[in-house]
Amino acid sequence: MSSSSCLRCVSQNHAIQRGPEGEGHTKKEEIFHAKLLALDEPLANGLSGPFPASDGGFPAIEVVNISFNSFDGAHPAFPAAANLTSLDISGNNFSGGINSSALCLGPVEVLRFSGNGFSGEIPSGLSRCKALAELSLDGNDLSGNIPGDLYTLPRLTRLSLQENQLTGNLGNDLGNLSQLVQLDLSYNRFSGSIPDVFGWMKRLECLNLASNRFHGELPASLSSCQMLRVISLRNNSLSGEIAINFKLLQNLNTFDTGTNNLSGTIPSGIALCTELKTLNLARNKLVGEIPENFKDLRSLSYLSLTGNDFKSLSSALQVLQHLPNLTSLVLTRNFRGGEKMPVDGNHGINGFKSMQVLVLANCLLTGVIPPWLQGLESLNVLDISWNKLNGNIPPWLGKLTNLFYIDLSNNSFTGELPMSFTQMRSLISSNGSSEQSPTEDLPLFIKKNSTGKGLQYNQVSSFPPSLILSNNLLVGPIWSSFGHLVKLHVLDLSWNNFSGPIPDELSNMSSLEMLNLGHNNLNGTIPSSLTKLNFLSKFDVSYNNLTGDVPTGGQFSTFTNEDFEGNSALCLLRNSSCSEKAPFVEAAYRKKSKGVLAALGLGTAVGVVSFLFCAYVIVSRIVHSRMQEPNPKAVANAEDSESSNSCLVLLFQNNKEISIEDILKSTNNFDQAYIVGCGGFGLVYKSTLPDGRRVAIKRLSGDYSQIEREFQAEVETLSRAQHDNLVLLQGYCKVGNDRLLIYSYMENGSLDYWLHERADSGMLLDWRKRLWIAQGAARGLAYLHMSCDPHILHRDIKSSNILLDENFEAHLADFGLARLICAYETHVTTDVVGTLGYIPPEYGQSPVATYKGDIYSFGIVLLELLTGRRPVDMCRPKGTRDVVSWVLQMKEEGRETEVFHPSIHHKENESQLIRVLEIACLCVTAAPKSRPTSQQLVAWLDDIAEDSVLEQPEVSGGFNLLA
C-alpha cells in the first residue's frame, strides 16, 4: 500500500501531501478530501499540536489512523463523515470530554481512543453506532458509570475500558453484549457483585475485571463460556468457594483470582483445563492439599499459591514434579504447621527439570537443604528464606549453572561458605553465560549483551543477581575468589560469624550495588580499592573489629557514619591522618536479636511474586561517577600549560564578567571543603564571586577534548533554556582538561536531601511544601518537553536533580547534560541514561529514551514525596524494596492510605494525597502510552492545589542547606 494515498502531515505547520498525483496542498480545508487508508504503523509518528480542522466537511473519509503522535486539544471532529468506518486516535494527548454526536454518522466499526487524557463520562449516544465492533477507551481519565445504551450495541466484539476511573455496578444488561470476544474493565473502581450473565456470551475469550472493588461470589455462568482463554479477577474482594465447572473450559489458558477472599479447597476440576499455563490463587483463604490430579496440567508454566493455608508440602511437591513445563512455583507462607523440608528417599522427588523460579519462603520449615534441588538444572531464582533450616550449605548449590539469585537468609545454617559460591557460572562472565528465555507467564525482562554500553544485566528480573545469606550462623573467611563474580549486584553476609580480613579482590566485583558485611567478626582494614566500585550504593561493615582509615573517594563519600559504627579502632579520615584524630565514635546502638529482626521482617513473604507486578528492570548505568581529588597546582597553573582560550569563561545571558582566577579563588582551588554535592556527572562546588553572587560550579568528569567545539555549542544552546523552574546555566569554562559549568546556586539544596537525609524533614517539609515542589518540578519538565526550542528530554529525573531555592521553589537540574533532541526528530533519542530506581521498564527492552520515560521518573519522585521512601531500598524486606511494587500492592489490597508518610497524612489533606497518588501511579504504569504528558501533570497538580487555595509557602530567609 502506497503511503502517498494516506493522510500525511509534515513539519510543524501540518502541511498535507495528497497522492497518487503527488499534488501538494497546504490549505487545511482540503486536508481530508482524499480517501484515507489505514497503515500497519501510525502515520507520521512524532507530530504535535492541535489536529487541523476543516470547514468543508469530510464526506470521503473511510479510515483515519493518526495513532501514537503527540496531537493535543479536543478530540478531532469529523463533520459529514458519512463513510467513516474506523477512527484510531490512540496514543496522543487529546483531552476534554468525548463527543459522540459526530462519530456515528456512518457505518463506524472501530473507535480507538486509548492512551489519551480524555476525562468526564463516557458519552451516551454510542448506541447510534449500530455497526460498532470495537470500542477502546482504555488509558484515559474517564469517570462515572457505563452508559446504559452502550449495552445495546448488537455487534460489539471488543470493549476495552481499563485504566480509567469508572465506577458503579455492572448490571444484568451486560449480558446483552452477546457477541463480545474481549471484555477488559480492569483497573477501575467498579463495585457490587459481578453479574451472573455470562451464559449469553458464547464467544467470549478474554475476561479481565482485575483491580476493581467487586465482591460476592464468582459467577457460575462463566462455565458456559467455552471459548474463554483468560479469566483475570485478581485484586478484588470476591468471596466464597471457586464454584466453576472447569470441565467446559477446555481452552482456558490463564486463571487469576489472586488477592481476594476466596475460601475452601482448590477444586480438582481445574486439572481438566489441559491448556492452562498460568494459575494464580495467591493471597486468599484457601485450605487443604494440592489435588492429586494436578499432575495432568501438562501445560502449566506458572503457579502461585502464596499466602493461603495449604498443608503437606511433601505431597504438593510429589504431585507438581510431574508438570514438565512448570517454570515458576511460588508457595510462600503456606505449610506453617511445623512441617519438614522434604528430602529424597521416601518422598521420591526428582522432577522439576524446567523449573526457573522456586520460592518456599516463610513457611517455617525445618530440616536441611534437600538434595533433590541439585537436579533443577534450569533454576534461576531460589528463595528459601525465613524458615528454620539448619546444617551446612551444600557445595553443589553453587554449581547450578543458571542460578543467579539465592536467598538463604534468616535460617540457622552453619559451617563455612562453600567455595563453589565464588565460581557460579551465571555470575562470573559478563559475556559468557547463556541468556534465559522469558516465560510467557512470569515476565523476566532480558537485557542482551549486545544492546549497548552501561547496561548491567543480561538475565534478570526485578530482583538483581544476588547472594543473600544474612542472619545465619556461618563462620570462616570471606573468600578472595568472590572477586570473580563480576555480574553480582547484591552480596549480603551480615549477621553471621565470618572472620578474617575483607579481601582486596572484592573490588573486582564491578557490578556490585550492595555489600553488607555488618555484624560479623571481620578484622584488618577496609581495602581502599573498594572505592573503584562505581555502582556501590549500599555499604555496611558496622560492628566488626576493623581498624585503620575509612577509605575516601568514589562512592565512599556518600556512606554515613552508621555504615562503619561498632568498630572501635576504625577512623574516619577527613583532612588529617588517622593518628591525628580520635578513634571512631560509636553511635548509640543496641544490637537487635535475631528474633526481633524476624518480627520486623515478615514482609519478605511476598518474595518473587512481585515479578508479576513489577516491570522494573535496572538496565542503565548508575551515574555516580568516581572522581579523583583535583590537583590544585595543576588547576591553578592551567593557564601556563594551555592555550589562551583554555581558561576562557564563556558567560550567557548578559552575566557580569568573571575570570578563571575568580573561580579558583572563590573555591580555594577546588578545595574539598567547598563541595556541596556529588552529581551524576561530577562534583559540585559552592562559590561566592567577587560581586557577591553565589553560584554552583559543576566540575565535569570525563574527557571532552575530542568534541570541544560540539560540546561548547551544546552548552550555549542549553543556556537558552530559561524558565523559573530550571537551574539556569550561567556560564561555561574550560580549564586545562577540566570542563566547568556555572549554575545558579540553590539555597536549600536538593529534594533528596530534605526527604532522605534531614532527620527533621517530616516537620519542615510539610504537605503544602511537597505539593508546591511537585508543581514546580512539573512546570519545569513541561517547559523542557513542550516549550524549549529544541525540545529536551531530561533522561535523569530524580529527587537529587530537583533543587530548592530559598522559597522552596523547585528547579530541575542536570537537564543540560542529557542529549538534546534533534528539532526534526523530537520524539526519541538514544543512548539511555538514568539512575537506579527511576528507570522505566521499557528501557530494558529498547535503548531509546522518550518523553514517557521522563514521566515515569517523575512518578517515582511523586511517590518519594508521598511515602518518604527511596525508590529502591535493598535493606527492606522483599516485596517492599522498590517503592513502585510496594505502593501498587498496597493499592491492590485497598490499603493505599497506609503508604503516606505519617508526617503529612492528616484527615484534612487525605483527599489531596490520594489524588496525587493516583497521578503517580498513572506515571509509573508499565505501558508508556498510558502515562500522562507533562502538560497534564501541571494541570492536574495545579487543580489539586487550587482546591485548598494553596499559596506559595512563606519561608523567611529560607533554610540553609548546611544547617
At CATH level 2, the architecture of the domain at 751-947 is Orthogonal Bundle
Our measurement of the CA-to-CA distance between the termini, rounded to an integer number of angstroms, reads: 67 Å
Calculate the mean pLDDT score and round it. 77
Main sheet attributes: strand count, strand direction, barrel closure: 19 strands, parallel
Structural class assignment:
alpha/beta
Pfam families: LRR_1, LRR_8, Pkinase
Protein name: non-specific serine/threonine protein kinase
Family: Belongs to the RLP family.
Transmembrane segments: 596-619
Secondary structure: elements and pairs:
Elements: E1 9-10, E2 15-18, E3 23-25, E4 48-50, E5 63-65, E6 70-73, E7 86-88, E8 93-96, E9 110-112, E10 117-121, E11 134-136, E12 141-144, E13 158-160, E14 165-169, E15 182-184, E16 189-193, E17 206-208, E18 213-216, E19 230-232, E20 237-240, E21 254-256, E22 261-264, E23 278-280, E24 285-288, E25 302-304, E26 309-310, H1 313-320, E27 328-330, E28 357-359, E29 366-367, E30 381-383, E31 388-392, E32 405-407, E33 412-416, H2 425-428, E34 466-468, E35 473-476, E36 490-492, E37 497-500, E38 514-516, E39 521-524, E40 538-540, E41 545-550, E42 569-572, H3 594-600, H4 632-636, H5 638-641, E43 649-651, H6 660-666, E44 675-679, E45 682-688, E46 694-700, H7 708-718, E47 729-735, E48 738-744, H8 751-756, H9 761-764, H10 767-787, E49 802-804, E50 810-812, E51 829-830, E52 848-849, H11 851-867, H12 883-892, H13 910-923, H14 934-947
Parallel strand pairs: 4-6, 5-7, 6-8, 7-9, 8-10, 9-11, 10-12, 11-13, 12-14, 13-15, 14-16, 15-17, 16-18, 17-19, 18-20, 19-21, 20-22, 21-23, 22-24, 23-25, 24-26, 25-27, 27-28, 28-30, 29-31, 30-32, 31-33, 32-34, 33-35, 34-36, 35-37, 36-38, 37-39, 38-40, 39-41, 41-42
Antiparallel strand pairs: 1-2, 2-3, 43-47, 44-45, 45-46, 46-48, 47-48, 49-50, 51-52
GO molecular function: ATP binding; protein serine/threonine kinase activity; receptor serine/threonine kinase binding
Domain Protein kinase: 670-950
Enzyme class: transferase
